[in-house]
Each structure stands twice: as structure tokens, then as C-alpha cells.
Amino acid sequence: MKQTKSLKRNIAGRLLRYVRPYKAYVLGAFVFSILYVGFVLLGPVLYGRAIDHMIGEGAVEFAQVYRMVAGFAACVLLAALSQKLLGNCVNSLCYKLVRDLRREAFFAVTEARVKYVDSHAQGDVMARIVNDVDIISDGLLQGASQLFTGVMTILATLVVMFVINYVIALVVVILTPLSLFVAAFITKRTFKSFSKQVKVQGELAAHAKEMIGGQKAVILFNEEKYSCEKFEKIDRELYEIGWRAQYYSALTNPSTRFVNAIIYAVVGVLGAIFCILSVRSGGQLVLGALTLSGFTVGMLSVFLSYANQYTKPFNEVSNVITQMQNAFASAERVFEVIDEPAEERGGNKHIEKVRGDIRIENARFSYEPGQKLIENFNLDVKAGSKIAIVGPTGCGKTTLINLLMRFYDLNEGNIFVDGVNIRDIPLDEYRGMFGMVLQESFLAGETVAWNIAYGKGNATREQIEAAAKAAYCDFFIRNMPDGYDTVLSSNINVSQGERQLLCIARVMLADPPMLILDEATSNIDTMTELRIQKAFKKIMQGRTSFIVAHRLSTILDADVILVMNHGSIIEQGTHAELMEKKGFYYNLYNSQFAKSE
Known about the structure:
Layout: H1 2-19, H2 23-52, H3 62-111, H4 114-119, H5 122-164, H6 166-187, H7 191-213, H8 215-220, H9 224-280, E1 284-287, E2 290-293, H10 297-338, E3 358-365, E4 374-381, E5 386-390, H11 397-404, E6 412-417, E7 420-421, H12 427-431, E8 434-437, H13 448-452, H14 461-470, H15 474-478, H16 496-510, E9 514-518, H17 526-540, E10 544-548, E11 560-565, E12 568-573, H18 575-581, H19 584-593
Parallel strand pairs: 5-10, 5-11, 8-9, 9-10
Antiparallel strand pairs: 1-2, 3-4, 3-6, 6-7, 11-12
């Protein structure tokens, strides 16, 4: 319990730091809430006095009644205006805080280590940035304004009731803890349920995104039933947790309303008794040793109105507390994203002109502690070399590329480029030394020209078109509805092979000093692949290039072929040298070209 309270305090403190830049809205909300509460409380006093000016049949003081009614109408209008301005301040504060939170969470994801993105479901991360931030806005800030207004109404109403008749006011105060006890009892049981609820919502979003993204594979393997069953399982869990959370929160309102109705009834009965006693005693109330001023019917109506206004905020506050529990649970998830450490981008060593000498010394790396992958790895690559990396699935090829690009950092050992440790080079500058083409093609919902120039925003249209021609994708781009200005979307049919060609054009436009090609032509037909290989051969001249390949026929002209297995280099040499050894590579190569019997 102490840990939960401490967590809430920390979350509340952090959220307040996001509110500080918008103190003007907070001050406006404070002023307008005071005005709103003041006008709301003044109204019953005016119509109570109007009632007291209706002395009896034929003895109505119409001038005073009209004046009180006019004052009451003005109070209603001013209260409505104050409430509107209060809402404007709170809404502006909410939207700005949501913008800041969502922006910071998104920036945190884009700057986070690749390990974070790899280890978290994309749907869950998206749910945190989109859904959870909205819950914070709705539940916390909107709720906080109601909470503040409600507390002010309770305190102001109490003061006025004590001035009018402190005996009835004391009775109200004595009965009030019943409502607070009910609200507190239920609130304790809601936070854990709401925390679980937002977590399972993230799991549901992640599963839905995964299945929708892989719909073709799901249909191909007839796994629709499994997909639906898993969705139903998570959805059922969400239902059970959500039902429990909503059940407890739903109890709050009727329970507090029941207690408040008791308070209202007690005030009505006591007030009626005091009215009768006041009339019988000639305007004075004598209760034992107590002597009170007279209690009129108008005062009773004021008291009943105040009793209702006094108890109503307890219902609102209890609902607000439920919303705030949900908001705290969502804030915890959002802050987990924001608190994710960013990649270390420091370094003060610069390489004026990159040659491309790469040396790896005594490298050791594993994704998880205790799970060995790369051990005592050493490699020396001369500038301008064409290095092919081959080996069975899981041997460490992609891991080696991840380490070269600093998507992950070594556990031990060092990597040097032109004699400089890559940790000492500014990260942006270091990654700018490489051009990379992956199996998975990234294209944004922008124009074709924008996607080719991605990473080189100052490229001219002539340069973009020249890169597209070199990558053999100019012909199909010009067949698109708007050519290079076509915005890529679900309505534009672009095949996997064409997507990969666009990514190759992007690298050719960037013209980097070093290249990494990870199955860069896996989705391209044979004829186009031969042309692309010629284009690659041209662009790789004088550049250090790493080629990850499963089709060994594509790397026969490599200067060095690294054969990897279980995270280590077990063979290296040219194709001819490795075939002559008749070792692991020899068997691997022949297995691809063995004649079927």
C-alpha cells in the first residue's frame, strides 16, 4: 500500500511539472472556479429571501421579490459564464499537456535504443502514446477541475450553513464522513484493477496490429481460428478486469448518493422543526441553554439547497477519484516510455574523410545475459573491400550488422573505423557513413520523390531521378498516377520488389562511403537483380561494403567471404579459396546447387 501511494505521489509530481508552463490557464481556472462557486452559492440566498418576502395572503412585498428574482437570474447567468470560461481554461490546459506528453513520448521512442523497439510490441507502444495520453487528459486534468470546484463548493457551503444555523450545520458535518468512508473504501480497490486494465488493453492492441499486419499469412495457413481464439482470450481477460474495475467504480456514485440523501432528509426534518419552534417562540429559538436567531421558511429552502449543493460534490469527487485512478495507471505506462534511456549520441572525434578501414577486436555480445552469441570475435577489413557474410540462420549475420551500425553496443571489445573507436564518434555522424538496404523496405506515406530523398532532403529532382534510373525503378515510377509526385498509400499498388528498388535508389542517392546490403535483392526478379548487381558493383567501387546473402551466387566476386556459425567466423577467404578447402562453405554452396534426385 505504501509503495502504491508513493508511486501515485511521484506520478502526480511529474504531471505537475508539465502543468507549470501553463500557469496562466491554472490561474484562470482558479479565478473562474471561485466566481462560479460564489454565484452558485449566492443564488439560493436570494430566492430564500424572496420566499421570506411572501409573508402571507395579500402581504407579498413584490418589489423585494422582483429584486431578488432579478438578482437570482443574474447569478445564474454569471455562474454559467464563469463555468464556460473555466471549461475553456481547463480544456486549453488539457490539450497543451496532451500535446507535450504525446510529443515527448514519441520523441523518446524515436531516440530510444533499438533494443526497446525490438523488445516491445508495436501495438502496445502505440496504445501508450495515443490511448493512454488521452486517458490522462480525461481522467486527471478534467477530473482535477471538478475536484477543485467540488472541494471549494463544500467548504464555502459549510461556512454559509454555519452562519445561518450552526446546529444543523454540525449535524451535516457529523454525517459527512459516512460519504467519505464509502468513497475511500471503494477507491482502494480500483487502482490495481485499472492498472491491469490498461496493460491488457495494450496487449489487445498489439495482437490486433500483429494479426492485421500479417493477415495474408494468417489466411494462407488457415490460422484464423487461432487468431480469433487468442483475441477472444485477451478480450475476455480485459472484460473480467474491466468489469471488476467498473463494478467498484460504479458502486461509488449510488453509495454516496444514498448517504447524501440521508443527510438531505435529516436537514429537511430538522429545518422544519426549527421553523415551527421559531414561529411558536416569536422569532427566537431556545434549545436548552442555546438561543438561536429565528429560522424562517426561506432559510429552510436555502438550507435544503445548500445541503444538496454540499452533498452533490461528494458524488462528483467520488467519480473523479475513479477517473484519476485510471489516469495514474495510464500515466505510469506513458512515463515508462518517456523514461526509456536514449541512445548515447556523444563523441567528439570526427573523421574528415572516411576511408572505410574497419577493425573489430575481441568482441563479445549477447542480447540477453547468460545467453552466448558472439564470443571473442575479431575482424580486420581494408578500405574498399567487398565483404560477404554467409552462414546458416541464427549464426550471427544480422547481429554483426546491428553491431556495425551501433543499433546495439558490444558487451566487451571495440570496433574501430579508420583507427577511431566508434563510441568516440558522434552517433549521427557515424551512421551517416553507411548506406543500408534491408529485406524489409521502409516507405512512408509521402511522395515517391520524398521517399527516395529520405535522409538527403536537399537533393534536387534531377539527382532523385538519376538515382531512380540507376536503381531501375524510373520506368514504373513514371507509370504511377502522378509520377514522382505520387503519394504512396494503400490505394497505390506497389509490389515488394518495387518497394525494395525504391529503397536501393535512396541509398544510391545518399552516396555513402560504406554500404551494408542485407538481402537487398531478395524480392526482385532475376533479370532486374542482374541489373541491380551491376549498379551495386558500380557504386561499391572504392567503398567498404558488407553483403549479407543467403543466395551464394550473388557474392562470388566478393574480396572476402566470412563464413559464420554460432557467432564466430569459422572460415574466410575468396570463393575459390573456400571451395578449395572443401569445408563448411563448400558444403553450404553445394547444398544450394545440388541436383534434385
